Amino acid sequence: MLMDNAPSAPAPMRVPEGDASILLVDDDRPFVTRLARAFEQRGFAVRTAEGVSEGVSAIRAQAPAYAVVDMRLGAGNGLDVIEALRRARPDARVVVLTGYGNIATAVTAVKLGAIDYLAKPADADEVIAALMRDPDTKAEPPENPMSADRIRWEHIQRVYELCDRNVSETARRLSMHRRTLQRILAKRAPR
């Protein structure tokens, strides 16, 4: 009998026994629909919300065991959803997804109770792995960490947002010339 030594595709991760309720909060409808389908196929009881108020309402109705929350929502911030879930169910495990990652929001999300912070696009297996990771084990280092230029750019963006997008105030707080800051803000984010 011949044995096939070709590597097979890994089986998708499945939810552990117990409460498998999960809330997905994201204002990107196609993305949240795909993610919900993937979670349902892996045994989760999925509910979705497209904004902060809808997410908080879903938590009030029945606080889930797990949540995946987008950081930037159309009419608010995903941190508000995390905070509401933490009050309703302190043992809930939350992963934050974002297309606009920066260090300050990651730290705030973790302080509010998120167990991980993943950049979009993240597939269901990555998210489930983050949700199920033993709290005492460290996460794997990223394959492609941010460059020093990207970290600098993220810091500038953070201060700019904290200054309500006021270029003059941001330049003053960063001790840089206003025109230099305008040139940096006009460019795309470095890799």
Automatic annotation (TrEMBL):
Report the residues modified as 4-aspartylphosphate.
70
**Keyword terms:** DNA-binding, Phosphoprotein
Q: Has keyword Membrane?
A: no
**Which domain of life does this protein belong to?**
Bacteria
Which Pfam family, just one, is annotated for this protein?
Answer: Response_reg
Q: Which CDD domains does this one have?
A: REC_RegA-like
Q: Where would I find the Response regulatory domain in this sequence?
A: 21-135
Q: Which InterPro entries match?
A: ActR_PrrA_rreg, CheY-like_superfamily, Sig_transdc_resp-reg_receiver, WalR-like
Please cite one Gene Ontology biological process associated with this protein: regulation of DNA-templated transcription
Phosphoprotein as UniProt keyword? yes
Matching entries from SMART domains are given as: REC
* SUPFAM superfamilies, alphabetized: CheY-like
- Entry GO CC: cytosol; protein-DNA complex
Q: Which GO terms describe its molecular function?
A: phosphorelay response regulator activity; transcription cis-regulatory region binding
Annotated protein name in UniProt: Two-component system response regulator RegA
The organism's taxonomy opens as:
Bacteria, Pseudomonadati, Pseudomonadota, Alphaproteobacteria, Hyphomicrobiales
